[in-house]
Amino acid sequence: MDSLFLRRPLSAFRAELETLPARRAAESPSYVQQKHYWLVALLVVTAIRFVMAWVIPISPEEAYHWNFARHLDWSYYDHPPMLAWAIALGRLIFGDSELGVRLLPVMFSIGTVIVAP
Questions:
Q1: pTM
Q2: Per-residue pLDDT tens for 1-19?
Q3: Domain ranges of the chain
Q4: pLDDT, tens digit, for every residue of 28-39?
Q5: Coil, helix or strand for 67?
Q6: How far apart are CA 20 and CA 32, in angstroms?
Q7: Which of the residues 25, 74, 104, 109 could staple to 86 if both were Cys, CB 3.0 to 4.6 A apart?
Q8: Minimal CA–CA distance to 91: which of 112, 63, 113?
């Protein structure tokens, strides 16, 4: 293990480590500012998703899942029951409408965005 890195005096490392936080703070915006930008972006995208979920008509695949939510069961032939239960809960809140069918899937996407980074 004869390397130049190991031969440097310890005082050289201390000088670099002491100036490192100051250099990083000058180079990039603070963590709070970055978090604020993500929160604003998340709120804007969520508002757009809710508007789109309310305006766009139900597709045939969504109608297929909506039918599962109308006839709840513990399992289905080709799907797990989570989506049907989520749509049923959305229907309880907003009724049989586009937003009622898509409410919890939109909320799930928000949770995915929060958890992913």
A1: 0.61
A2: 455 555 666 666 666 666 6
A3: 30-115
A4: 666 656 677 878
A5: helix
A6: 19
A7: 104
A8: 63
Q: Which two tokens stand for residue 54?
A: 């309310």
pLDDT beneath 70, residues of the chain:
1-34, 117
Burial call 22-56: b when 16+ CB within 10 Å, e when fewer: eeeeeeeeeeeeeeeeeeeeeeeeeeebeeebeee
- Token pair 């109308």 is found at 70
What pLDDT shows up at residue 28?
60
Task: Provide the token pair at 5.
Answer: 């890195």
Angstrom distance (rounded) from CA 20 to CA 35: 22
Give φ, ψ of 96 to 5 degrees: -80, 75
Give Cβ neighbours of residue 86 (< 8 Å, ≥ 6 apart): 69, 104, 105, 108
Residue recorded with tokens 């928000």: 110
Q: Cβ(10)–Cβ(18) under 8 Å?
A: no
Instruction: Report the C-alpha gap between 54 and 35 in whole angstroms.
Output: 29
